[in-house]
Structure formats: C-alpha cells, structure tokens
Specification:
alpha+beta, four-stranded mixed beta sheet, six-stranded antiparallel beta sheet, about 260 residues, globular
Length: about 260
C-alpha cells in the first residue's frame, strides 16, 4: 500500500479483522474440506472510507466486503430504512418540545446476525493481518458480512427483534420508527440509530443505550449534529422556527400519546 495514510488504513484493517475474528464471523476450512466443496467460492476485498467525528477529527474505516455480486443462490434481501419524512417529523418534535437526540453507530452491524445458509464460502483478500493467524485460503461464513446480498435483511431482523424485546413498538407509519412509553423514539437507518427523548426520559434513554451496548458494539457519538445518514442539525435553537411537515394524523396521535405517557407518575 503506497497511500500516504497507509498507517491509518493498516490500523483500520487490523481493527476490522479483530472484530471479525472475535465475532466468529467465519470458520476455517482445511485443505481436505476445501477440495470436497460443491459450492462456488466467493472472493472478498477491502473497502476504505473516512468519516468525520462531531469534533472535526477524522476516522479511518476499513471494511472486509464479500463480493456479493457473484452470489447466485440467495433468499430474500429487501430491508427497509427510515424515511426522511420521519426524520423531519422528529426534528419538528425536537424543535417544538425541546427533546434531546443522540446519535449511535453500531460498529460492524452486519456481522451480528447469523446466516441461515451453511454453504457460503469465501476466500480472504490480500492484506489480512498475519498476526491474527487466520486461514489464508477459504472460510465458511457463520454470520453475515458486508456485501452479502441478504445481509441488510438479516441485520434488520436482528435489531428489530432486540428493540421489540426492550418494550418498543413499531410505528404503523414507518416500520423503522420505534416508540417506547417512557418517551423515547428510535429511528433506524441501517446501522445508524437516532434516539429522541424528553428531558424527563433521560434516565430511561441511558438504560436503553446501556442495553444496546450489551448486545452490540456501539459507538455513542453523543448529541446528533452531523448524522451520516441524515446530514441535518438535531438540536434546534429556540429562535429557529420549525415548520411542521404534512404527515398522517395518526403520527400526531402517536407522538401525543408518548408525551402523555411519559408525564404520568
């Protein structure tokens, strides 16, 4: 690698590789098993990206991606993401009622769910850190990986089930908007989580974030101000007038219901 940032990318690759190994994302195949394979081996590659933190610093991210475009046998792949109109509605509530909004990032989100296909085999790319003593040739996937066609759906099913187990309910207007009677709203956009809540629900929100961190590797980016998914300011000053978006009346009912329940003793 000849990039001037090669040291940053090398560390990013090591972090990604360590996460994959600790997560038991794949298992090694010995030479005998590899010869007996009756399935096509899919290649993989590194994808590099920089992200900017709220304080202006730069994060270097390296992601191991399977070449899913070479998959020929797979099930359902569709996974919905949060709607922009939903986010606009949350901005309206935040501006009018002085709610808080936190931005959480699920690290290597797609590596969490197990796959339901035992015959997905992959070859590792150049640059895999030798210090990890990982297999050099072929591995069998045990969990989802970025690039896998069904990975988004598997991840969404996983996080959806977990949020429901915490007592959240899905909005009928947007299935990626989750409501909690404590006064917390969560909006999902793939691996980005926007959590909006009342001042009185701060303690409950902290507990929810703690439970999410127990189940997933979470980076808490604090008060959302530059979400990579939405690119919009979360906290709106009192002097700014926020125009309410035109949305179904049921949304108003849901929001007012949460406000009412959160104020109950």
């Amino acid at each position: 690698m000849e990039s001037p940032q090669r040291d940053h990318w090398k560390r990013a690759m090591e972090q990604e590789s360590s996460s994959i190994m600790l997560n038991n994302t794949f298992s090694a195949l010995n030479s005998c098993e590899a010869r007996q394979l009756q399935v096509k081996q899919i290649g993989s590659k590194w994808v590099y990206k920089t992200k900017h933190n709220p304080d202006g610093s730069t994060r270097y991210k390296a992601r191991l991606v399977i070449k899913g475009y070479k998959q020929t046998d797979f099930g359902e792949t569709y996974a919905a993401v949060g709607k922009l109109t939903t986010f606009q509605y949350l901005i309206y509530l935040i501006g009018r009622y002085r709610w808080k909004m936190d931005h959480l990032d699920v690290v290597t989100a797609f590596l969490n769910p197990k796959i339901d296909d035992d015959d997905i085999c992959m070859t590792l790319p150049e640059g895999w850190p030798e210090s990890l003593k990982a297999p050099k040739i072929i591995v069998r996937l045990r969990k989802a990986l970025y690039g896998l066609k069904q990975a988004p759906r598997l991840w969404h099913n996983d996080i959806n089930g977990f949020l429901l187990s915490l007592g959240f309910t899905q909005s009928s207007a947007d299935r990626n908007l989750y409501l909690h009677s404590d006064g917390i709203l969560i909006l999902l956009y793939v691996d980005d989580i926007s959590m909006s809540y009342l001042e009185a629900a701060t303690k409950a929100a902290i507990e929810v974030k703690a439970k999410l961190s127990e189940n997933y590797k979470i980076t808490n980016l604090g008060t959302a101000s530059n979400s990579s998914a939405w690119k919009s300011t979360a906290m709106i000053p009192e002097s700014v007038s926020v125009r309410k978006p035109i949305l179904p009346q049921s949304w108003d009912n849901l929001a007012w219901r949460i406000l009412t329940l959160s104020r109950c003793p």
